[in-house]
Amino acid sequence: MIQVKNVHKQFGAQKVLDGISFSVEKGTVTTIIGRSGSGKSVLLKHLIGLVKPDSGDILIDGENIVRMRGPEVIKLRRRFGILFQDGALFDSLTVAENVAFPIREHTKLRDAEVMDLVHRKLSVVGMTGHDEKLPAQISGGMRKRVGLARALALDPDIVFFDEPTTGLDPLTKGAIYDLIKRTHSNASITYVIVSHDIQGVFGVSDEVMMLWDGKILASGTPEVMRRSTHPVVRQFLNGTADGPIRID
User: Fold this and answer.
1) E-strand stretches of 45-195
2) Is residue 61 within 8 Å of residue 139, measured between CB atoms?
3) What is the Cα 127 distance to its own chain's centre?
């Protein structure tokens, strides 16, 4: 579903992506891990076409998003769902209106059909009965649920998650990962997660990749990653101060 080929990106003197190559199989849950500031979010922006690489190619289901311009990128993005770090809900819209927004923007469904679809998506994420509430009236975990309902609204081929559990307590984090696992098992779509929450993502991922120093340092199933003997991978997974990673 996704092929990244020798992608380089530099901002001024700072090299962020240094010849990254990897692939994501269709229908899998793939997580990109790495410490804060490692370039995970920059890589995610490349995958959804918000940032162009200095060199290299990114193919989405065989289409090279790097070569696309304007309307072509917008058309391709309609196949994406995105759950942003803070949910990114519109404060002035109700829960139902937030989920309905992309449906109204990209389809010609009648109002009754739109709301029927909204209610079905809210039911999937456990938010039935909260339709008329504003984002300020619900918890952080509930906002993430609404954000996921909106990301799934158009039945996308790929859903991208940018740090889906940032700022949530451990119980709510667990509920969000359970939701990610359940919604993925109910559909043949591809999930790509960017996170540094090791415990959570290892429970839902088919493949894990570690971004370090602008490259994919290691990749494999969660079990393969747990057994890695690479000192950087071991230090990151164990969360210890001792090791090759400098703690600033």
Assistant:
1) 55-60, 63-64, 80-83, 158-162, 190-194
2) no
3) 20
Whose structure tokens read 């164990």?
238
Q: How far out from the chain centre does Cα 202 lie?
A: 15
Q: How many CB atoms lie within 10 A of CB 47?
A: 21
Cβ neighbours for 248, distance < 8 A, ≥ 6 positions apart? none
Q: How far apart are CA 69 and CA 11, in angstroms?
A: 21
Burial 6-40 (b: 16+ CB within 10 A, else e): ebebeeeeeebbeebebebeeebbbbbbbeeebbb
Q: What is the pLDDT of residues 152-187, one digit of tens each?
A: 999 999 999 998 888 888 888 888 999 999 888 767
What's the pTM value of the predicted model, to 2 decimals?
A: 0.91
